[in-house]
Design brief:
By secondary structure, this protein is α+β, with helices and mostly antiparallel strands. It has one domain. Helices cover 22% and strands 14% of the residues. A hairpin with a 5-residue loop joins strand 2 and strand 3. The longest helix is centred in the last third of the chain and has 10 residues. The termini are far apart. Bound molecules: zinc ion.
């Protein structure tokens, strides 16, 4: 299967730092899953394995302090 899974809105995740898209989870065969940009494979994607939204968030953050403020206020709206 070659499907994508949308990440539920209840899960905090950063938007793609290149294009601003909300990431998706893609099945990467026997290796597991990747969290990636839906628009372009050259934008950041996590290493295949467990679904690692934390890793996605870290790599799509430019100002770490602001990120924590946003999280405390309740999401990415
Ligand atoms: Zn992107």
């Amino acid at each position: 299967m070659n499907g994508y899974v949308n990440i539920p809105n209840t899960v905090f995740c950063k938007r793609c730092r290149n294009c601003g898209a909300r990431p998706i989870i893609a099945h990467a065969g026997i290796e597991g899953y990747v969290v990636k940009c839906p628009n372009d494979d050259s934008h950041y994607q996590t290493v295949p394995g467990i679904i690692d939204i934390e890793d996605w968030n870290i790599h799509n953050t430019e100002l770490y302090e602001n990120d924590y403020d946003l999280k405390a206020m309740g999401g990415d709206r």
